[in-house]
Amino acid sequence: PGGYSTSAPTIDDCDDTPVTGTPINPGVTEILGNGIDDDCNAATPDGALDVEDDFDLDNLLISPNPFSSILNIKLPLNYNNSEFNIKIFDLNGRLVFSKQYSSINGTINVTNLNRLEQAPYLLKIINKETGKSVVKRLIKY
Asked: pLDDT tens digits for 106-116?
């Protein structure tokens, strides 16, 4: 397919730099936590989708939960005007929503979620400045 190298040593490789010694192509299984997109699919998470917090957001509030089409994420005020990537994954680990937001008055309003099916999801909030994240459980009704 287009974008893949056709010369050794990176035949069928979608990422020619850096050379890792391990093939990187759509036929490879993603290795969790190695920081490499092994399977050439950015939607496949590189880490486990657990609910362990990587940064301290004791006062984080997500409402409503269960939700229909809108989520309100209330952050501690020290995150006011901070940039965040908001990602929603289904329980199979597939990325179903991804968008960048700035918090305004410590709040992020995520809209246009009505296209998601009724199901449980995992919400990952990633601070763009630090790269740290938190994962929370959600229910779509």
From this structure: 899 999 999 99
Residues comprising the chain, all counted: 141
User: Do the Cβ atoms of 12 and 23 come closer than 8 Å?
Assistant: yes
Of 56, 26, 55, which is closest to residue 38 (Cα–Cα)?
Answer: 26
Write b or e for each residue in 37-69: b if 16 or more Cβ atoms lie within 10 A of its Cβ, otherwise e. Answer: bbbbeeeebeeeeeeeeeeebeebebeeeebee
Q: Which two tokens stand for residue 4?
A: 């893949």
Q: What's the pLDDT tens digit per position in 85-105?
A: 999 999 999 999 999 999 998
d(CA 22, CA 38): 8
- Cβ partners under 8 Å of residue 121, min gap 6: 88, 89, 90, 91, 96, 137, 138, 139, 140
- Contact at 8 Å (CB) between 125 and 134? yes
- Per the structure block, which two tokens stand in for 11? 């035949």
Residues β-bridged to residue 83 = 102
Q: What is the pTM of this model?
A: 0.61
Q: What angle do CA 139, 125, 80 make, to 5 degrees?
A: 120
Q: Which two tokens stand for residue 53?
A: 């917090």
* Six token digits for residue 120: 């449980």
CB-CB contact of 104 with 137 (8 Å): no
